[in-house]
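Thread title: Can someone regenerate the structure for this chain?

I was given the following input by a collaborator and told the matching structure tokens would be attached. They weren't. Posting the sequence so someone can regenerate them.
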Amino acid sequence: MGRPLLFDISGGELIIILLFALLFFGSKGIPDLARTLGRTMRQVRDASNEVQREIQRGANEVTRTVNEQRRAFQQEVAAAQAKPPAIPPPPGEGGTPEPPPPEEKDKP
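Best answer:
Regenerated them for you:
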């Protein structure tokens, strides 16, 4: 059992459809019908292309923003790695000497 096809039309069926169109629209109406059909197909194609362009613009904007944020983050990481650690050395091991404790004055 085969699958049904949407446009599975044989030659005989096509001739019958064309004859019906000729009788229904007349010989003078068929060119107008074909012109209208062509114009409609062009408008649909143009609208489809415009939607695709809009989607592509949005995707490019998102990609650009992500790349800018990635670049800024990488610069921050590189700057943080280039700086020496902010932890002071322990007291008594180099660096600045520890100030002497304040002397208590005699209280009367």
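The CA atoms of residues 88 and 95 lie 8 Å apart.
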